[in-house]
């Protein structure tokens, strides 16, 4: 996937892009189902709120094939490499969840815990 001139310009000016059509509804449904299965697991990589609701799943690409594919999918990687002009690699991977209405307050920017590979 190549970004058009308007998308490149927006990124350069605003520092972000929203690509809602990057994946199909069927692909998103698979990822949603896989995320639900991940959050049912008891793993040290899955952090929970005080209520027990899932908060974040760190390093899901290491234990879930669908998210491993997502993390290296050309539709994700190629636009980034186009913008940066060089190859990229995955530094951190996490899936954030938040309990609706009653979820704990938490920051989007978190340090990757040392116990997660």
Walk me through the structure.
The chain has 4 helices and 3 strands. The chain is mostly helical. The relative contact order is 0.17.
Features:
117 residues, Jelly Rolls, three-stranded antiparallel β-sheet, 38% helix, 9% strand, 3 strands, 4 helices
SSE blueprint and pairings:
Elements: H1 5-14, H2 25-40, E1 46-48, E2 54-58, H3 65-72, H4 74-84, E3 94-96
Antiparallel strand pairs: 1-2, 2-3
Please outline what is shown here.
The chain is mostly helical and 117 residues long. It is 38% helix and 9% strand.
Based on CA atoms alone, the radius of gyration comes out at 16 Å
Count every helix, treating DSSP H or I runs of 4 or more residues as helices: 4
Share of helix among residues? 25-40%
Sequence of secondary-structure elements: HHEEHHE
């Amino acid at each position: 996937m190549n970004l058009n001139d308007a998308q490149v310009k927006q990124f350069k000016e605003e520092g972000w892009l929203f690509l809602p059509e990057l994946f199909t509804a069927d692909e998103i449904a698979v990822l949603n189902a896989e995320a639900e299965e991940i959050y049912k697991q008891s793993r040290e990589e899955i952090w929970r709120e005080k209520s027990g609701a899932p908060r974040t799943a760190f390093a899901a690409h290491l234990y879930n094939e669908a998210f491993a594919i997502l993390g290296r999918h050309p539709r994700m990687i190629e636009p980034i490499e186009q913008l940066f002009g060089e190859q990229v690699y995955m530094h951190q991977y996490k899936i954030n969840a938040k309990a609706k209405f009653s979820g704990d307050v938490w920051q989007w920017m978190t340090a990757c815990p040392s116990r997660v590979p």
